[in-house]
């Protein structure tokens, strides 16, 4: 039994280590994600602490009276407190998500502007050249794909007509 418990603990520690490493990579790669996570954790800390204090006080009061009715009241109080906590945490998550989406949008726009400015200042003659340098290859490959698709459709139509004529 001890060996099984130890294996489970080791597995959980390894899994948490891998999750932490993955999260660290994403946080370093996307700074707005770090701001989002730290804001969410910081904003959730106070309500969770208040709930834990409330739960501890109500559990202490329940054990001091220790009757069936008091235990039922304890469960009701904890359910009510959990509902309030859930509501507060959902509100915090929504506000943080909205703030994160705005921050992430500004960050993407900033990075795009920096990349565009660096391309313009690196010797490209105009903004039109930069845009056409990205758009023309995409349009050419799309045109080639459309021609290939048109040829495939024409071939399928000819095959269908031939099979109809054979019947």
How would you characterize this protein structure?
This protein has helices at 2-29, 31-65, 68-121, 127-166. The protein has 2 domains: 2-123; 126-167. The chain has 4 helices and no strands. The model has no long low-confidence stretch (mean pLDDT 78). It is elongated. The chain has 167 residues and is mostly helical.
Mind sketching the topology for me?
Elements: H1 2-29, H2 31-65, H3 68-121, H4 127-166
Helix pairs in contact: 1-2, 2-3
Key descriptive features of the protein:
elongated; 0% strand; mainly alpha; 4 helices; 167 residues; 2 domains
Task: Summarize it.
The protein is an all-alpha fold and 167 residues long. It is 94% helix and 0% strand.
Span between N and C termini? 74 Å
Number of domains: 2
- Summed up, the helix count is 4
The proportion of residues in beta strands is under 5%
Largest sheet: none
Helix content: over 70%
Instruction: List unreliable stretches of 5+ residues.
Output: none
Q: Give the ordered list of helices and strands.
A: HHHH
Shape: elongated
| Average residue-wise pLDDT | 78
Structural class call reads mainly alpha
- What is the β-strand count? 0
Rg of Cα set: 31 Å
